[in-house]
Design goal:
The chain contains 15 helices and 12 strands. It is α+β, with helices and mostly antiparallel strands. Belongs to the peptidase S13 family.
């Protein structure tokens, strides 16, 4: 801290896990437990100085543990005040102005400089400099996207990718459900691991073989009533019902793999001592959940894939899981072709190439897999500044709000959701969910008030917005922004935003008196990106380290 010896790393990690969240505030503690999978992983990474941030996200983000109950003990161990934020004195406008006005005059900042600091306990704007003036937000707009998605979908909602029957016999359709994290890797063992395309192929192959076995049994004449043979395989409607029930139960519950699902060595299912012929199907794929242009307005770019309801690994063509990477031109087709190959590996005869088609209404579901919960997707989007997840969350907000799932429809849906929350949306425009588009505009006060809403004990569903914020010097996009001895290391939790000429920072701190504050600092027109970033970091550190009274 300023004027003090730097805290040891374990103490900084403890502070970042406790002070950096609204659990330090008495009002927020009342909202419930905070120990999400993201925070558990984050504390482990911080303590070990792991270089990665936000890679894995637990199944129950925002819904486990009880860090609020431990806040006093941790603060006391650090020799810091342990009173609730509601009892801690609030900073004054004059005190904050004395601390921030000189920093806001830094020549590295662009012509447009805006700032807002809001008391999270009262919701009062305690410091503002052009706080209501819209500015290009860059990636800090992901805060708005996250709040809108959690409000529209809920933190426990999952995005399902399914396989259904086609309009004709022998046709199946792979239906995209908007999950950009669906992976070509084998299923993981953790509840928050992404849905697995190989696991979906396992389940689909099993369902197809059981149907083939049922059909063979009916042709044999031994099961004319559609009942099961001695091997337990069902025929007729029983097979359809069982496949649908299993798909519904499997999606998102069993994340470790299906055991016999992957066993396709005989190329077909047994029936009464005979082997049914290998299932033969034509594969189509359905991306109709989303509409409008798939290509982001910035054009082809390694920071984002074309937005599609069906893709694997965010359309990445390498083995990366974050950051810039070569992207598929048509992520849906790539995913469908990969799925066809996986089915063939499992003894299913897939004829021809996958074609683009819409699944029929009322089609039978054969199999499904589900994404991690929206809470975990929000955390990953914020920690890693994941553009593909942000765009998916924006479009899913549109779907839930009755808007077209396009860039324009998502923008309207996000703005409407935020307006319902009572935050200042005047002048705000949402042209994408990720902040890559330079035509978007939000105010510093809007961003700060969204963070205050996320700390509201009456809105626990928004808590993943706070738990997903990177920790200064430790995780995500803030890991390298603060030196080890920086006054803000471990104390500032914030979302970064960077485009050419645009630098923004919005997050939360607990000040020296123990008061929880939300802030947003924005500059447009800078010609010194590193200098502007450093200036914003100094402003956040100043808020964290002064009582400002």
């Amino acid at each position: 801290m300023s004027g003090q010896q730097a805290l040891p790393s374990w103490q900084v990690a403890a502070v970042s896990a406790v002070l950096g969240l609204a659990v330090a505030a008495g009002a927020v503690t009342a909202a419930g437990p905070w120990d999400s999978g993201q925070r558990t992983a984050e504390r482990a990474r911080a303590a070990a100085q792991d270089r990665e941030g936000g890679e894995r996200h637990g199944d129950g983000a925002g819904s486990g543990g009880a860090d609020g109950a431990r806040a006093s003990a941790v603060l006391a161990a650090l020799g810091m005040p342990a009173r609730a934020a509601g009892d801690a004195p609030a900073p004054t406008s004059r005190g904050l102005a004395d601390a921030l006005d000189p920093l806001l005059r830094d020549p590295a900042l662009g012509k447009l400089r805006t700032a807002a600091v809001v008391d999270a306990v009262t919701g009062r704007l305690v410091y503002g400099s052009r706080a209501g003036t819209p500015a290009v937000p860059a990636s800090t707009v992901k805060i708005a996207t996250a709040v809108a998605a959690l409000d529209a979908l809920g933190p426990d909602h999952r995005l399902e990718t399914e396989v259904v029957t086609g309009p004709e016999d022998g046709e199946i359709v792979l239906v995209g459900g908007g999950d950009p994290t669906l992976t070509r890797e084998a299923p993981g063992e953790e509840p928050g691991d992404p849905a697995s395309l190989p696991q979906l192929a396992d389940r689909t192959a099993r369902a197809l073989k059981e149907r083939a076995a049922g059909d063979a049994g009916n042709d044999d004449g031994r099961n004319g009533d559609g009942g099961g043979g001695e091997d337990g395989s069902d025929g007729g409607n029983d097979t359809k019902d069982r496949a649908k029930d299993r798909a519904k139960g499997d999606a998102g519950k069993d994340r470790k793999g299906d055991g016999e699902d992957g066993d396709s060595g005989d190329g077909g299912a047994k029936n009464g001592g005979k082997r049914a012929a290998a299932p033969k199907v034509e594969l189509a794929y359905d991306t109709s959940r989303y509409s409008g242009p798939a290509r982001h307005p910035i054009g082809p770019n390694e920071n984002i894939a074309p937005v599609s309801a069906l893709m694997t690994d965010e359309g990445r063509l390498d083995d990366s899981d974050r950051g810039p990477a070569p992207r598929a031109e048509d992520p849906a087709r790539e995913a469908a072709e990969a799925f066809a190959g996986l089915l063939r590996d499992r003894g299913v005869d897939v004829t021809g190439k996958p074609r683009h088609a819409k699944a029929p209404r009322g089609a039978d579901r054969l199999a499904a897999v589900a994404s991690p919960p929206v809470s975990a997707l929000v955390e990953r989007s914020l920690t890693n500044s994941d553009n593909d997840i942000a765009e998916a969350l924006a479009r899913e907000t549109a779907v839930a709000s009755g808007e077209p799932a396009s860039f324009a429809g998502a923008g309207r849906a996000v703005r409407d959701r935020l307006a319902r929350l009572g935050v200042p949306v005047k002048g705000a425009g949402f042209t994408d969910g990720s902040g890559l588009d330079r035509h978007g505009a939000v105010s510093a006060e809007l961003l700060a008030q969204l963070l205050v809403r996320s700390a509201d004990p009456e809105r626990p569903e928004l808590r993943p917005v706070l738990t997903g914020l990177p920790v200064a010097g430790f995780s995500g996009t803030l890991r390298s922004r603060y030196a080890d001895a920086s006054a803000g290391t471990g104390m500032v939790r914030a979302k970064t935003g960077t485009l050419t000429g645009v630098n923004t920072l919005a997050g939360t701190v607990v000040d020296a008196d123990g008061r929880l504050l939300a802030f947003a600092f924005m500059t447009n027109g800078s010609t010194d990106a590193k200098g502007a970033q450093a200036a914003l970091d100094r402003m956040a550190s100043a808020v964290a380290n002064c009582g400002c009274r």
